[in-house]
Design a protein that fits this description.
Largest sheet: 9 strands, mixed
Helix content: 25-40%
CATH class of the largest domain: Alpha Beta
Number of domains: 2
CATH architecture of the largest domain: 2-Layer Sandwich
Strand order of the largest sheet: 14-13-12-11-7-10-9-8-15
Shape: globular
Radius of gyration: 20 Å
Number of strands: 15
Structural class: alpha/beta
Order of helices and strands: EHEHEHEHEHEHEHHEEEEEEEHHE
Strand content: 15-25%
CATH superfamily of the largest domain: Dihydrodipicolinate Reductase, domain 2
Length: about 325
Amino acid sequence: MSVQTKPLKVGVIGLGVGQAHVEAYDRHPQVNIFALCDLAEEKRAWALESYPEAGFTSSAEEILTDPRIDVVSICSYDDIHYEQIMLALEHNKHVFVEKPLCLKSEHARDIRRALDEKPHLKISSNLILRKCPRFIALREKILAGDFGELFCIEGDYNYGRLWKVTEGWRGQLEFYSIVLGGGVHIIDLFLWLTGSRVKEVTAYGNQIASRGTQFRYPDLVSAILQFENGMTGKLTVNYGCMQPHFHNLMIYGTGATYVNDLEYGRLYTSRDPLQPFTKMTQPYPGVHKGDLLDDFIAAIGEDREPQITKTDIFDAISICLAIEKSINHGPVAVDYI
C-alpha cells in the first residue's frame, strides 16, 4: 500500500454544490485547492474572495486538461458529466463526480472502459446518504442479524423542490431524469443496506405536478423492484410533493420493521400493539455534502477503493437506467454495466 505524501492539487468545476466540495478540500491537510471553475459572475466573486490563491476560470476544459491537477470534482450540470469525466480520465485525473455519473447506458459503458484501461485512477460519487448517522446505525443492526431475513424494502425520495425543475436549470436541459438525479440516492441506500442487487424493475411515471411548465419529463416515478435474493422493493421519486425534502424509508424483516421519521426512526420488534417501539435518535440527515471527500483523498493516497466504489456507482446507475427504460417499456431486467 502506497501512502500519499505530496499534497494533491484539486480543481472543482461548478460552484453550486461544488462550494461544499471546496470547503471539504480546504479542511484537508493533503489537498491544495489549485483551480476553481464556474460560468456565473457571482461565483467568480465568491471564489476570488474566499480562495484568492486558487486560479479561477470559466473553462472546465482548462482544469480537465491541466497536467498539474491531480483530482477534479465535477459538480456541473448533469448533461455534461460524461464528457467531463472522459476528458479527466484521458488526462490522468482522479474524479469525484456529483450524481448522476451520466445519463445514458452507452456513456456509462464508455466510462467503465476508460477506468478499466487506467486502474490506478480513482472515481467516486456523492451518494451521501451512506454518511447519515441514523442509516449507519440501521445498517449495523441489519448486519448484526437484528432484522432476521429481509423480505421488503421501501423508500421515497420526496424532493419537495418542484421549482428546481419548473424554473431552474434542470428543466432547461435537453433531458433531465429525476431517477438519475435524485432517486439514485435511495437506490444506493437499498443496495448498501440489504447487500443484494436488483434483477428486474417495473416503473410508471407522470407529470401532473409540473404540467404546463418548462419541464417535459416525469416529476413522479414509482418502481417495483425484484431483488436477486427474492426480496421485493418499492421506490418512489417525488419532486412535486407538498412537503419539505425527506427520505422516507421502511425495512421489513422476519425479526424487525423500521420506519424513518424526521425526529427519529421507529424500530418495531413485535406485532403486539401494546409493545412499544424503539426510537433510533441518531441524527438525520446529519451530513454535509462534502463528507465523503476525506475518504476519497485517503483512497488515492493509500491506493484503495473509496467508500463509494466503482462497483457501487455502476450498480446504482444500472438500476436507475433500467427504471427509466421501464417507464415506457414495461418490466425490464437490469443490465449491469
